[in-house]
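Renewal narrative, Specific Aim 1. Our central claim is that a sequence can be written position by position from structural information alone. The example that follows is taken directly from our test logs and has not been curated for this report. It begins with the structure tokens describing the chain, in the order in which they were read.
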């Protein structure tokens, strides 16, 4: 990713996961900055959209309601780098789905 100017960014991750995944910990890092957050609420909504299809989807996914999880605030420096999101702790039988990361510049 490219950070256009130094600053602090509040970051939300939109996710879905079953109850078995509660307790998972995710880490987001870019350069020397990183955040860790624990999944404390299950969010396992049903997929929607199939009822409108005339042909079964083979390459596109169905939609579901993803829940935001505030990861925290990350201080980022101007420049390019590799943004990495990974699960550092997963309970047995855990699975996580991530839809998007939302970055908001904060003072």
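The sequence written for that structure reads:
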């Amino acid at each position: 990713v490219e950070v256009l100017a130094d600053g602090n960014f509040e970051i939300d991750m939109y996710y879905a996961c079953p109850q078995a995944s509660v307790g998972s910990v995710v880490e987001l890092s870019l350069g020397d900055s990183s955040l860790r957050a624990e999944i404390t609420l299950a969010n396992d909504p049903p997929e929607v959209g199939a009822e409108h299809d005339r042909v079964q989807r083979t390459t596109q996914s169905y939609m579901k309601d993803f829940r935001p999880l505030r990861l925290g605030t990350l201080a980022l420096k101007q420049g390019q780098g590799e943004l990495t999101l990974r699960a550092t702790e997963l309970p047995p039988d855990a699975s996580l789905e991530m839809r998007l990361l939302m970055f908001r510049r904060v003072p």
